[in-house]
Recover the amino acids of this structure.
């Protein structure tokens, strides 16, 4: 199982230093963990987890006020990026055209991409989820070898209400007909539901928000599986 933590707009440079230290002291070489940390926490140190970028602008550098390009990520050895998170789509207004540009830029650089897709409650209740997700994947090369896809229903993100195993399995099985990329589930994953989610055959890991912000909570979630 792959465990990806999305720290979002949480953790200062100082608090992330402690966070990383706790993970480094407790992760084993078998644990497959990515942490998408805020830019200000980057230090260029080696960790037992992969440090990833929550965002980037598809450029080397240039006149893009407030953005971070490849030159800045290279300085910290970052080659793993999150693209398409619903908060960037919905709150920050990232459109398909921008996501396509980011995807293509990341592919050109051979970066590991965790690409997020997911439907709103309205789409889910209308029974249009599969069609919607298929459309969200139209702009990207599903054969890219360094691609991981995270299915994150928007209604399950940060709500404490995870999708059921049946719902997750149905969607991941559907996505498996479109791509051989490893599939993650994200949406209110925690130490209590991780064991159940891990039983879903087509689920190769989880993308975790809230339950990853505290290093010990995140470790509990990872270790909940190794204790089984
Ligand atoms: C996320 O933001 O990617 C996420 C899955 O958040 P949470 O775990 O809090 O639902």
């Amino acid at each position: 199982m792959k465990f990806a933590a999305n720290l979002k707009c949480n953790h200062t440079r100082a608090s992330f230093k402690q966070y990383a230290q706790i993970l480094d002291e407790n992760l084993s070489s078998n644990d497959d963990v990515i942490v998408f940390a805020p830019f200000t926490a980057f230090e260029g140190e080696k960790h037992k987890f992969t440090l990833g970028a929550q965002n980037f602008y598809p450029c080397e550098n240039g006149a893009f006020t407030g953005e971070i390009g490849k030159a800045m990520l290279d300085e910290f050895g970052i080659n793993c990026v999150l693209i398409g998170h619903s908060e960037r789509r919905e709150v920050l207004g990232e459109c398909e055209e921008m996501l396509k540009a980011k995807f293509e830029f990341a592919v050109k650089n051979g970066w590991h991409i965790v690409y997020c897709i997911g439907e709103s409650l309205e789409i889910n209740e209308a029974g249009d989820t599969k069609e919607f997700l298929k459309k969200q994947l139209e702009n990207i090369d599903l054969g890219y070898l360094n691609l991981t896809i995270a299915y994150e229903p928007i209604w399950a993100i940060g709500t404490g209400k995870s999708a059921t195993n049946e719902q997750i399995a149905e969607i991941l099985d559907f996505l498996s007909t479109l791509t051989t990329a490893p599939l993650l589930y994200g949406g209110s994953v925690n130490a209590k539901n991780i064991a159940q989610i891990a039983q879903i055959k087509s689920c190769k890991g989880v993308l975790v928000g809230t339950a990853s912000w505290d290093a010990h909570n995140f470790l509990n979630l990872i270790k909940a599986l190794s204790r089984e």
In short: The chain has a mean pLDDT of 96.
